[in-house]
Amino acid sequence: MTLAISTAALPEVAVVRDASEAAAAVAAGTGQALESLVGLLEQCLGQLKGQPDDITRVAVCTGPGSFTGLRIGVAFANAFAQARGLPVIGVSSYDVAEFGVAAFPRIAVIKGKVNHYYMRVRLDAAAAAQYTQGDGAQVQALIESVTGSSPRRPVVVGSGFGEPAAGEGARRVALLSMAVVAEGQEHRLRWTGAVIDYGQCPNAVANFEKRDAADQEGRPFQRREPEADEGSAPLA
Question: Do 72 and 170 belong to one domain?
């Protein structure tokens, strides 16, 4: 069984027996990830009549997305796996958004804090992915830019663009992790835990670096204050 966790937006859990999805259970919460994950896991195991010890692999969405949600979800996944000696596979929010999409060019849009989005552009299968971030207006500007420079209109997926049903994100995390194993990408199985992709430098790290630089230069330190950190929502 694969346990999959997604907390980049609202908390979601999936438990999948195998890639055929002959036996799969998903559950989604509406509140805080910290309060939801254990209950969601119990729901999924109950649907499959399974036990925690039946789980042999853990997959988790590593972001970008909600800073707080990612920290909780990845910590839960790592703790669950390490307590049982299981590997953890990290899955990108961009890959979750693009699940099942084969067309190019395509743009994956991921909601972070209020009116702030992370974007990945893939022009074709051979081109390196391009990353940027900005507000809703910048998302629309990026779409227009790619549309104007490509013979085909880009496929846009993710936050505000045909988001999956509740629980579907976690199911995709599970299936993507199974593909990693099937393709022999052993380097992506982490025995020390998954690592979060915040999409940008977290405030704690930014403030540490700013304080250190200010101390060395003998100038006052100006703290970068945290902003609201919310889950998925339509583009503003």
Answer: yes
